[in-house]
Predict the structure of Ammonium Transporter Family protein.
Amino acid sequence: MTLDVSAIHAGQVTLNSLVQNILYASGTVGAILVVVGLLLIDAGTARRKNLFNSTIEKTLGFFLGFATYYVVGFGLWAGQYYIMEGATMMDSIKDWWIGGNMTNALAHHTDPGTFPGLNTFQIFIFFLATFAGIINILLHFSVSERMKASAYFITCIVAAIVSSALSYATWGSVGPLTNAGFHDFFGVGFVYLFPAGMALVFTPKLGARPGMMEPHPRVSAYLAPSIGLCAPGLLLIFAGLPMVILSCLFFFDPEALAVSVTMADTSVGVSINNYALVWAGGAITGLIIAYKSGNYAYTLLGPLAGYVAGASGFDVYLPWQAFVVGLAAPFVAYIVYEFTLKRGVDEHKLFPLFLGCGTFGMLVLGIFKAGTPRGGYFGVEEGAYAFQHGEISLIMQVAGVATCIGTGIVTAMILSFILERTVGLRIDEDDQIDGLDQKFWDLQPDVVTHADSA
């Protein structure tokens, strides 16, 4: 196609739009750093004989979710804005599936009257596709070394579709729940609570890994190969997420007026400082709990607990409030972690961080920020989608939490029923003990640990 400069739509390629394109593209870079951080944590904690298999399954699961989102996911999320304009969900899917008109259009050939800011929306596909993949990585932490690869990969595709539909309702400002008052700035509901709901079903079905909760005749203890890798993994996540915060803001005239994706009044500086302070607060309390209990896990759970608890309200908290939420959250993680540990539940990440701290953060937000105006869409002055017509409320926060966790539970129950009767769900215990690296990839660990020689 020959470029006719006289026929381009200059409004789609202004300097202001380029700045926004770069800003949202930086959010994708931040999200990818989160992926790398999560894989480092996995590399430091998976059993040596399963290390490569565990990490590569997470990587492949990421790309399955990523690709599935490109096929259909974005059209599901963007449907809320189409419906606001009087169109339908199917119109959105037709425009934004992988072969859709808007997905494949060149911005400067597209009339801004048809779709303004097209480049930004196209970049947003990449951004949200990365989180569709992250959901699968997070889910894998709860089924790692126990779920059959075929079952996990099928689950990844289904989870990407279901979480996309869930994001339509729970993340944004004009979806069914968000427009009614459910507030979730950072996508805690569909990114964290949804896979945690799935883990509630999968974890008991798969059981504990040999040697994890108690000595096994062939594995006296479950030994992580290099816990030290978790610290740089944690800091990579910390480094990447500020760029993601920028991608959770919309920018309107005059030039750089930041409005939350929830349509709450906020600012770039306060949102990023809130993010920083929940990590700091969580790290401080985690440090205290870790040294008091002698359990290193709380040095890692602490800052993550603060982050997850505060994430839904980065846009509406004041910095001192965010710090207090960060300080309190590790206590919730401690309660859930110890409760599950004493009952032999082999799930040490999603339950304390997401079911515990994610839910805690949602409810605290509903209590202490009740009445905060949000929802609708900027510039709409009346009707069902009037700008900031809705308010944060505890009832809607409870409804949103129940919807996200419940969707995960139902999805996993249906999948479990099908998978158990087709490809199977659980890896044989002897194969878990002998090592999945050896079974699938003919890889041997460089050392034999004293636990494996029992």
